[in-house]
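Researcher: Quick test of sequence recovery. C-alpha cells follow.
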C-alpha cells in the first residue's frame, strides 16, 4: 500500500486558505506558514508533504506557486526532496524545545498596562484641531517655507512662542532669542557642545539626559534634592552650568523654593554660570496657577528648554530654547547651515495652533484630565493601600508613590508579574548621589536622605480612559501589605 501524506489542514491549519485567498505574495505566505508548521512541531522531521499539484488544488493556488515554495524551502534546508520519495520535512528541521525546568507561573510577555512616565495618551491628540491648523498654515505659507530650512526655526512659530511663553510662563524674550529644536534632548546636545562642562545636575533626573551630556564630553555632578527642590547651595564656581526642573522637580515632584530660585540666579550672575531650566511640564499645575519660569528672573543667565512632547505628542519633534543673547549665534551655528530636524510645515501648523487659541484649549482639557487621573490614583491608594502615599505637588503627568524602606525592587518585580510596566525611583537617581550626600552629611528637615528613599514613579497620563482603572487595580495588587 502506498504511503499517504498529511493533508493541507494538518499542514497549515484552518486559517491559511483564507489568508492565501487575499492579495499579496501568496508564495511568501505559504512559505511562512510551512516554516511555522515545522518550527512549532506540527510537522515533525520526516513527515511527507502532499505533491505540489495536490496542495495547489486544495488551496486554490497555481501549481507553480506551490512548486516554487517547495523548491525554496528545500534550498533553505527546511524540506528535503528525493526522486521517487516526494517532499518531506528535513531531518534537521526539528522544533526548538526548551530545556526541562520546574513549572512556574508564566510572566506576561509584554505589559498589559503602562504606567511608565513620559508621554500623554496618544488617543488624546487633538487631530481635528491640528488638521484645521495644518490646512490654514499650508494655505497661507510663504514660498520660502518649502525651501531649505533656517536653523533658527520658522519666524512664525518663534513669534507665536514668544507671546505664549510670556503670557503663560512669565518668560521675557523676543522671537530672535528663540531657537527651535527637535526636543529637550536636542537642545541639551547643542548646549553641551557650545557651553562645555562640567555641569551640576539634580540628584534625581532622567538618566537619558545625563548620558547624553556625558556622550558629548560633559560630566555631571549631583546636587541634593529635598522637599524644596534642588539644593542649589551646593553649586560651585567650577560648575559651568546647572540642569534644573524648577516648576516640578523631575521625578520627585516638588517645586523649587522661591529663596532657591533667587539663589541660583545669584550663583549664575556671580560665577558666569548658566542655569538650564527644563520646563518639561510647567503648564500642568492642578492646585494653583503654574509658577512662572526662573528665566523671567534673569534672561541673560538662564536658558529655558521646552517642547510639545508632554502637552501634544513626542511624535511632533518640536522643541525650543529661549537663550541669552550671547548664545543665540553659537547655538544656531552648532545646528548647522540648514534645518535638519523639525519639519517646517509642522512648525507652521504649531504656530497657527498657538495663535488660534487651540493650544490653550487643548492644554486646559488635558489639565482637567490629568488632574482627574491623579485624583483617581490618590483615592485608590487611600482605599486599597493607606500605608503608602503620593508625594510632591499636584502637577505634571506622573506622581511618586512613596514605599516602605527596602521594598522598591520587590514591588517593581511584583508589578511586572501583574502585567504592569512601572519604574522605581532608584532608576532616576544620579550614580554619584550617595557619595555626595555622605560627603555633605545631607539631611533635609529630619527627612531621610534621597539615597534612602524607596518609591514608584507612576505615569498616569499614558493609559487609555477605559484601561486606567484596571491599571490602578494592578498597581494596588503589587504594593506591599500594610
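Model:
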Amino acid at each position: 500500500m502506498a504511503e499517504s501524506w498529511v493533508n493541507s489542514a494538518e499542514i497549515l491549519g484552518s486559517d491559511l486558505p483564507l489568508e492565501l485567498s487575499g492579495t499579496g505574495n501568496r508564495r511568501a505566505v505559504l512559505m511562512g506558514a510551512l516554516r511555522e508548521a515545522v518550527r512549532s512541531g506540527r510537522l515533525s522531521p520526516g513527515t511527507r508533504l502532499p505533491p505540489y499539484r495536490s496542495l495547489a488544488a486544495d488551496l486554490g493556488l497555481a501549481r507553480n506557486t506551490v512548486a516554487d515554495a517547495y523548491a525554496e524551502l528545500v534550498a533553505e534546508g527546511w524540506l528535503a526532496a528525493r526522486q521517487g520519495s516526494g517532499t518531506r520535512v528535513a531531518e534537521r528541521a526539528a522544533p526548538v524545545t526548551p530545556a526541562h525546568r520546574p513549572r512556574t507561573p508564566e510572566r506576561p510577555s509584554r505589559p498589559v498596562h503602562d504606567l511608565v512616565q513620559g508621554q500623554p495618551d496618544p488617543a488624546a491628540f487633538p487631530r481635528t484641531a491640528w488638521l484645521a491648523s495644518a490646512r490654514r498654515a499650508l494655505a497661507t505659507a510663504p514660498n520660502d517655507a518649502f525651501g531649505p530650512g533656517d536653523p533658527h526655526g520658522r519666524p512664525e512659530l518663534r513669534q507665536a512662542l514668544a507671546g505664549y511663553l510670556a503670557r503663560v510662563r512669565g518668560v521675557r524674550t523676543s522671537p530672535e532669542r528663540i531657537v527651535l529644536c527637535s526636543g529637550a534632548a536636542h537642545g541639551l546636545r547643542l548646549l553641551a557642545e557650545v557651553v562645555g562642562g562640567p555641569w551640576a545636575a539634580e540628584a534625581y533626573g532622567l538618566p537619558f539626559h545625563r548620558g547624553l551630556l556625558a556622550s558629548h564630553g560633559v560630566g555631571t555632578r549631583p546636587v541634593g534634592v529635598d522637599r524644596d527642590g534642588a539644593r542649589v547651595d551646593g553649586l560651585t564656581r567650577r560648575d559651568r552650568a546647572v540642569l534644573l526642573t524648577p516648576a516640578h522637580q523631575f521625578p520627585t515632584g516638588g517645586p523649587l523654593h522661591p529663596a532657591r530660585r533667587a539663589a541660583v540666579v545669584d550663583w549664575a550672575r556671580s560665577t558666569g554660570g548658566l542655569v538650564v531650566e527644563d520646563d518639561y511640564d510647567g503648564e500642568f499645575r492642578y492646585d494653583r496657577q503654574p509658577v512662572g519660569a526662573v528665566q523671567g528672573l534673569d534672561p541673560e543667565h538662564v536658558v529655558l528648554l521646552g517642547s510639545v512632547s508632554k502637552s501634544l505628542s513626542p511624535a511632533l519633534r518640536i522643541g525650543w530654547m529661549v537663550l541669552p543673547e550671547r548664545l543665540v549665534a553659537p547655538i544656531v551655528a552648532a545646528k548647522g547651515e540648514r534645518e535638519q530636524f523639525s519639519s517646517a510645515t509642522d512648525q507652521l501648523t504649531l504656530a497657527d495652533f498657538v495663535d488660534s487659541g487651540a493650544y490653550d484649549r487643548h492644554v486646559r482639557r488635558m489639565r482637567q484630565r490629568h488632574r482627574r487621573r491623579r485624583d483617581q490614583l490618590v483615592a485608590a491608594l487611600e482605599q486599597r493601600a493607606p500605608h503608602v502615599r503620593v508625594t510632591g505637588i499636584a502637577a505634571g503627568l506622573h506622581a511618586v508613590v512613596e514605599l516602605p524602606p527596602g521594598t522598591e525592587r520587590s514591588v517593581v518585580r511584583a508589578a511586572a508579574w501583574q502585567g504592569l510596566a512601572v519604574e522605581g525611583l532608584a532608576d532616576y537617581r544620579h550614580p554619584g548621589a550617595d557619595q555626595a550626600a555622605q560627603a555633605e552629611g545631607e539631611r533635609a528637615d529630619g527627612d531621610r536622605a534621597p539615597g534612602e528613599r524607596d518609591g514608584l514613579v507612576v505615569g498616569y497620563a499614558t493609559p487609555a480612559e477605559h484601561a486606567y482603572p484596571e491599571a490602578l487595580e494592578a498597581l494596588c495588587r503589587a504594593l506591599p501589605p500594610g
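Residues 358-384 form the longest helix (27 residues).
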